[in-house]
Write a structure and sequence with these properties.
With 458 residues, this protein is of the alpha/beta class. It has 19 helices and 14 strands. The protein has a 5-stranded parallel beta sheet, sandwiched between helices.
Length: 458
């Protein structure tokens, strides 16, 4: 937990303030000092925890707490108070303070109180990270291939193994890497991403390993590389297949020796980060063709993950489409009641060469173009409508009567899926082969779905 949390100490007693600062450093917090309530309010924006003395000049601790809590209600504030001010401290707790401690302080109790606040703060941060990842995550899905992927991530994440993620563009390789990071013992450390195909060889070396002052033209100061910035966390090397041969040699050494040499430097620097790499190329074929080092390939490919293209998990399309539609409706302040079944059929019939990224783009466009509160097929890209016209019976030119989805129904995605499957089956005269083809799923999957609905013989 070293220096993870910034603890703001506000106390007008300099000796007491400095003593608390020393204790906080010993307990591996980063102390920031204020000598009155006004200074505390001004510095609270950058703090993770706050220790406030009840009585201070300029602005007292209780007044400072009220202002801090109004601006940042999630921030844990601990009041340090004299015995005569306990009633005020109790009122502060009723109004949202984390706790109060009476002077002279019991340092063990202070340590435990800070630890409990920090643990809650750490959990809140992790939940926020998970929520942010899920906000656009193509890892959403209930298909078997996605359940298998989630299970593999659960096994891989707690280890220190290097991971190679392969998959087409837009399948969510970086988000899989973030899922590994968040489920690992390094979740509190940084997640640092770099696109290896977006930089020249010289710039990539400088970005990854850093450089010394004067190492090249324009290097007017020392630069810490991404391997060093990722200490305690994960470095994500995207598009690793684009890495130039000379850089492949340097990366192999970094992985083998667990140390790097900055550009223009001579002394190795130890690194402490986990490596997760990703590529949309077939690296085994690249090795066979001599385009990628075999020794580096095996060093990276300790654990392998394959991100499935969306065409292999079409049963996840209703879930993903609804997720993205709600997200973009909220972002664009558009009323949204649901996705009509004619639109869902066309989404299911498309092959999605751009994968989940393409689906997100299509749903954002549909939200902007929809004339009412629901997404109809007519607001989907023309190429999808044209494809449907050429590929009947995979699509129906008429909207499906009676199964437009309301806002109340949106969360029950099983019901959305059931309605679409049963309607398509009925429209195609109970022909299960054609129904499976129209929905983009296997006949075996369709039979399993129908058995679950109690409709296999109907």
């Amino acid at each position: 937990m070293k220096n993870e949390f910034v603890a703001l100490v506000a106390d007008d007693d300099k000796s007491h303030r400095e003593m608390l600062g020393a204790l906080l450093r010993e307990w591996e917090y980063e102390p920031v000092m204020a000598c009155n309530g006004a200074e505390a309010v001004a510095q609270a924006e950058s703090a993770d925890l706050v220790l406030l003395d009840g009585r201070m000049p300029v602005m007292g601790g209780f007044e400072a707490f009220a202002k801090i809590h109004a601006a940042r209600p999630e921030l844990p504030v601990i009041i340090m108070t004299a015995y005569s001010e306990v009633e005020d401290a109790v009122n502060a707790i009723r109004n949202g303070a984390w706790d109060y401690l009476t002077k002279p302080l019991d340092f063990e109790k202070l340590r435990i109180t800070l630890r409990n606040a920090a643990e809650k703060l750490g959990l809140a941060r992790k939940n926020a990270q998970l929520a942010a990842a899920a906000e656009t995550s193509p890892l959403l899905g209930r298909s078997q291939v996605m359940r298998d992927l989630a299970a593999m991530i659960k096994v891989i994440a707690p280890t220190e193994a290097t991971v190679l993620i392969e998959g087409e563009s837009g399948t969510g390789k970086e988000l899989a890497a973030r899922a590994i990071h968040l489920a690992s013992g390094r979740a509190r450390g940084p997640f640092v991403a770099v696109n290896c195909g977006a930089l020249t060889e010289t710039l990539l070396a400088s970005e990854l390993f850093g450089h010394e002052k004067g190492a090249f033209t324009g290097a007017d100061k020392k630069h810490e590389g991404l391997f060093s910035q990722a200490r305690g966390g994960v470095i994500f090397l995207d598009e690793i297949g684009e890495m130039p041969p000379a850089m492949q040699v340097r990366l192999l050494r970094a992985l083998q020796e667990r140390e790097i040499v900055p550009v223009g430097g001579s002394r190795p620097v130890p690194v402490d980060c986990r490596v997760v790499a990703a590529t949309n190329r077939d690296l085994a074929s690249e090795v066979a063709q001599g385009n990628f080092r075999e020794d580096l390939y095996y060093r990276l490919n300790v654990m392998a993950l394959r991100m499935p293209p969306l065409r292999e998990r079409k049963e996840d399309i209703p879930l993903l489409a609804s997720h993205f539609a709600r997200k973009f409706a909220a972002q664009n302040k558009r009323p949204f009641s649901g996705i009509a079944s004619d639109a869902l059929e066309r989404l299911a019939a498309w092959d999605w060469p751009g994968n989940v990224r393409e689906l997100a783009n299509v749903m954002e466009r549909a939200i902007i173009l929809m004339p009412g509160e629901s997404i109809q097929a007519r607001v989907l890209p023309e190429k999808m409508l044209a494809r449907c016209g050429q590929n009947a019976p995979a699509c129906d030119r008429q909207a499906l009567p009676g199964i437009a989805l309301s806002a109340e129904e949106l969360p029950t995605l099983d019901e959305i899926e059931k309605r679409v499957i049963l309607h398509t089956l009925k429209r195609l005269g109970n022909n299960k082969t054609e129904t499976a083809r129209a929905l983009g799923i296997t006949r075996k999957t369709l039979h399993a779905k129908l058995r679950g609905y109690g409709a296999s013989e109907k």
